[in-house]
Design brief:
The complex is a heterodimer. By secondary structure, chain A is an alpha+beta fold. Chain A has two domains: 98 residues, Beta-grasp domain (Ubiquitin-like (UB roll), Roll), CATH 3.10.20.30; 128 residues, Alpha-helical ferredoxin (Fumarate Reductase Iron-sulfur Protein, Chain B, domain 2), CATH 1.10.1060.10. Chain A is built from nine helices and seven strands; from the N terminus they run E-E-H-E-E-E-E-E-H-H-H-H-H-H-H-H. In chain A, the strands form two sheets. A five-stranded mixed β-sheet of chain A has the order 2-1-5-3-4. In chain A, strand 6 and strand 7 form a beta hairpin. The relative contact order of chain A is 0.14. Among the domains of chain B are: 141 residues, Flavocytochrome C3, Chain A, domain 1 (Alpha-Beta Complex), CATH 3.90.700.10; 146 residues, Methane Monooxygenase Hydroxylase, Chain G, domain 1 (Up-down Bundle). In chain B, a hairpin with an 8-residue loop joins strand 18 and strand 19. In chain B, helix 15 packs antiparallel against helix 16. The model of chain B has no long low-confidence stretch (mean pLDDT 96). Classes of the chains: A alpha+beta, B alpha+beta. Bound molecules: flavin-adenine dinucleotide (FAD), iron/sulfur cluster and FE2/S2 (inorganic) cluster. Flavin-adenine dinucleotide (FAD) binds next to helix 3, helix 6, strand 6, helix 7 and strand 15 of chain B.
Amino acid sequence: MDLKLKIWRQKDSQSRGKFVNYKLNDVSPDSSFLEMLDVLNEELVERNEEPIVFDHDCREGICGACGMVINGRPHGPDSLITVCQLHMRKFKHGDTIVIEPWRARAFPLIKDLMVDRYAFDKLIQESGFVSVNTGSAPEANSIPVKKHYADLAMDAAACIGCGACVAACKNASAMLFVGAKVSHLTLLPQGKIEAKERVLQMVAKMDELGFGNCTNTGACEAECPKGITLTNIARLNREYYYAKV
Amino acid sequence: MHRIHSNIPEGPLTEKWSSYKSNQNLVNPANKRKLDIIVVGTGLAGGAAAASLAEMGFKVKSFCYQDSPRRAHSIAAQGGINAAKNYQNDGDSIFRLFFDTVKGGDYRSREGNVYRLAEVSNQIIDQCVAQGVPFAREYGGTLDNRSFGGALVSRTFYARGQTGQQLLLGAYQSLSRQIKQGNVEMYPRMEMQNLVMVDGKARGIICRDVITGKLERFSAHAVVLATGGYGNVFFLSTMAMGANASAIWQCHKKGALFGNPCYVQIHPTCIPVHGEYQSKLTLMSESLRNDGRIWVPKNKEDAEKLQKGEISGSEIPEENRDYYLERRYPAFGNLVPRDVASRAAKERCDAGYGVNSTGLAVFLDFKDSIARLGKDVIEAKYGNLFQMYEKITDDNPYEMPMMIYPAIHYSMGGIWVDYELQTTVPGLFATGESNFSDHGANRLGASALMQGLADGYFVLPYTIQNYLAHEINTPRFPTDLKEFEQAESEVRKRLEDLMAVKGSQTVDTIHKRLGKIMWDYVGMARNKDGLELAIEEIQNLKEDFWNNLKIPGEMDDLNPELQKATRLADFLELGELMAMDAMHREESCGGHFREEFQTGEGEALRNDKDFAYVAAWEYKGEGKEPELHKEALKFENVELKQRNYK
Ligand SMILES: Cc1cc2nc3c(=O)[nH]c(=O)nc-3n(C[C@H](O)[C@H](O)[C@H](O)COP(=O)(O)OP(=O)(O)OC[C@H]3O[C@@H](n4cnc5c(N)ncnc54)[C@H](O)[C@@H]3O)c2cc1C
Ligand code: SF4
Ligand code: FES
């Protein structure tokens, strides 16, 4: 298929960016979206132009490195997948595809489609962990965990830290990401012990890092590639409330 | 002549590790604060090591090339992690896990190391559960297990199809806690390019800041490599796009011997190659072989129709299917080790029974288990894998058998280390997939996660102290020493040389050519003529690379093409060493299959008399033949046999 691409190009955080138009012909419907960009980049390099910069690594939908807004949707038109898993068969001959970076105050732009998501790491550093030193753990089966809670914790822990929820949110809020981590740890007896401090510290940090407030629009859930649900935000709010009272 | 001593403690197998720990030197808490440790890599090995060392009180500097330590490629591991807990009461034990791993590695690993690995495996599970890793559980609340290839017991712990992700997040969260406490300085998007040695000891590294392109110097009292595997030599593999051998290769050039470079693992269940533009291969977890049955048609006519797309797999009646693994290996069936399963698939496809348009695929079929257990059960176990398969291939594996083919997946070879995980460069340690240690010539499923975490949580944090105990009087030192200057200028020169080529070929076109040479001649089946040809072709390709490479953009800037070129420059050199190693090893063992050495039934034929050793290669300089050192392998607790999975 032949495509028209409108891609955001920006030299660095200081420069002004703009959309640049490219034509790409004979794209295989079986190639992935990033492979399509690889082909474009090979053409650019051959013409001695700088390739389009974007983050990516595992290309299996698990590392969370990739992410771009495609025709207005984070990770593109398909649901429950990352952009590296999106395949070109979701597009058709003659389509125009608009590609932009995540846009959020807490994720400053680095170049083209690449942004800085270190704010997510800062959130985890704040208290997204269980304080247990190596070597001090009790026998693994000594604390049984109800399968139901282990499964719910796993649902929440599946978050890959891609940032699509922030990019999708008109307030650039990180509530889904933080809700997922708070839920994952609080649902397990091992993480429950520090639940109170964790939720207070992570919420305060979220504000400090420039993420916006949650106004319950649900855009995050709709775009999350890992199916992290709004119930995690509800649990976060509940935990926050308990911790405050 | 290099001294290579494995330094395995004396005494009975079961007491080696405890006696080592009782007798080793330790560093006292006050001194720990004065010692800096560089840990390159934030995967299971590096993340666990950095967190544990920092908890102990050392000052750690941690590095990764991704934007966040959480994205190391350990994140992609799907199936699970082994441990000898014997929770299933099926007769497992530390000895059995040790034995299976030595046998699975085709008797080319060290007994002492593997036993230690099996010993600490149980502690790993305890540690991970305490961190909040949401392992799968039974209704009664206890931990669940599944089976993996090469074992007759159920000892694999898992978190859906995302075990690596969950284990890595556990390590990452512990690391994050130490970053917050100020014990770890985290340097993401920093790619190691060189090792700095002062007075013969590893004292620092030179990195290129991926964003600015600037070179940066870091000093420490010891350097730990945890940079993962080198499967991307083959261009197409299940490795992450950025996975590279540069850190280990540069250390090799500085004197660290390279162990068994030719041992790479080809995983039997990957999604087949589909086109020229393809950038990587996707693994379908080995756990699928618990419930999926592998087959090709019995009749060639059916295979030909499948290849032409005239019929689909589900139309072939039961009596015309050849479940070749069950046929050839009735005891282990679909759960034979990876090397055996991969070769068997290749054998069928080479004989013309492949089932897709390229003829390079076999079926992995869930029809029977869906009928037996129900779709819900299969979905609960493998839902995310089935979804991934469907997204990539547009086929629904609940209705049509999956198509799979072997792909490069893991490197058993790596930097040579002794029992303490120390390389032949004093003060330089290597952990996880980057070292050559515990898997011999073939790794069993679910054992890499175990090894990465064993090294990172429980082995290195001890053994490194035996070295550091002698460094307590070495003060922190500045990075303006001439050794740092020199190491940095070596890197700068190389980058300038790469930018100066200004040829006409892109990095990827050359990398794809290297991949093809490697896959054709240094892949699943190797022979002398092919390997000779490979060496010659790689040398020519290297020449082409240094004369025809094209890199746009600037050196001191974010430049992905330059980044890929530095990695490829190292892969080209490593690829040649892999071919040389494969050529010298005139036997077949594990993942290394030499066509000249096989049994009448096509199984790998080892030569224990002449080759029961680790090949440790020493770099001798540009254009010079590397020197081979041999570390003899002693087997006192297992009897060397031809592996039998029948
Ligand atoms: C798809 C897939 C599935 C797998 N499934 C399983 C499984 O089910 N069970 C199992 O036991 N094993 C599995 N494995 C194998 C296992 O995941 C790996 O062997 C293991 O995770 C490697 O861990 P590591 O810490 O050694 O390296 P990695 O996790 O690869 O980490 C490497 C680190 O080094 C850094 N790095 C690399 N080069 C540089 C450089 N030059 N400068 C700075 N930093 C650098 C990276 O940024 C990264 O942080 C799987 C592997 C793959 C690819
Ligand atoms: S919650 Fe979903 S969208 Fe947000 S970071 Fe996690 S995986 Fe990405
Ligand atoms: S590249 Fe890893 S999730 Fe897309």
